[in-house]
């Protein structure tokens, strides 16, 4: 199973759940949406550490395509999240095909703050397009468990989704 990972805290419950089902997991980090770059580095470093302690094989795509991401996200306006999901998930499906994985899923399905139905629809479309299975799980049921475990591990937890727009929104809401 190829698991697209947005961040280490969001990977805790999905990784546990899938392993409990007997599924072998290979993690994949591709998140050019995370801004600023220092935030990107914190999330990547936290995931690398977690992958080591959980013995999770991990592929890292650390392309930081700031200008391209921002330009395209702006074109989508309020639907920028759909663009963001698609570019990251499409890259995960491409890598899964390259590595002969049997299926793909994503930690984006763990967050209660993401557009769950949109993620599911995008993954189903990509599954058809790339000819590789999409394993759907509603990982949100493990939200509390994942947070508790990340706290026990003293894991860095971000307070916004990742893009500069979501970072701005966290302050506007206050």
Quaternary structure state of the chains depicted: single chain
Percentage of residues in helical conformation: 55-70%
Taking the alpha carbons of the first and last residues, their distance comes to: 39 Å
Shape: globular
**CATH top level?**
Alpha Beta
Rg: 15 Å
Listing every helix as H and every strand as E from the N terminus to the C terminus, the arrangement reads EHEHEHHEHEHH
Structural class: alpha/beta
Mean pLDDT over all positions? 92
Q: Could you say what the CATH topology is called?
A: Rossmann fold
Major β-sheet annotation: 5 strands, parallel
Total separate domains: 1
Low-confidence stretches: none
CATH homology-level superfamily: HUPs
Count of discrete alpha- or pi-helical segments spanning 4 or more residues: 7
Count of extended strands? 5
Main sheet: which strands, in order across?
3-2-1-4-5
Please give the CATH architecture. Answer: 3-Layer(aba) Sandwich
Strand-residue proportion: 5-15%
How would you characterize the overall build of this protein?
This protein is an alpha/beta fold and 174 residues long. It has a single domain, classed as Rossmann fold. The protein is 55% helix and 9% strand. The chain has helices at residues 8-20, 37-54, 66-76, 80-98, 116-130, 143-152, 164-173, and strands spanning 2-4, 26-29, 58-60, 103-106, 133-134. It has a 5-stranded parallel beta sheet, with helices on both faces. Strand 1 (2-4), helix 1 (8-20) and strand 2 (26-29) form a beta-alpha-beta unit. The mean pLDDT is 92.
């Amino acid at each position: 199973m190829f698991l697209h990972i947005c961040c280490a805290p969001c990977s805790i419950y999905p990784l546990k759940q899938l392993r409990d089902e007997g599924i072998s997991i290979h993690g994949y980090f591709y998140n050019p949406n995370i801004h600023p770059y220092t935030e990107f580095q914190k999330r990547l470093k936290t995931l690398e550490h977690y992958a080591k302690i959980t013995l999770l094989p991990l592929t890292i795509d650390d392309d930081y395509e700031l200008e391209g991401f921002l330009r395209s996200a702006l074109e989508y306006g309020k639907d920028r999240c759909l663009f963001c999901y698609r570019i990251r998930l499409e890259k995960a499906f491409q890598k899964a095909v390259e590595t002969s994985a049997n299926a793909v899923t994503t930690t984006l399905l763990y967050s209660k703050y993401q557009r769950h139905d949109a993620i599911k629809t995008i993954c189903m479309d990509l599954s058809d397009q790339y000819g590789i299975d999409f394993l759907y799980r509603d990982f949100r049921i493990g939200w509390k468990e994942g947070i508790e475990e990340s706290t026990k591990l003293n894991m860095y937890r971000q307070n916004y989704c990742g893009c500069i727009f979501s970072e701005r929104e966290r302050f506007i809401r206050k």
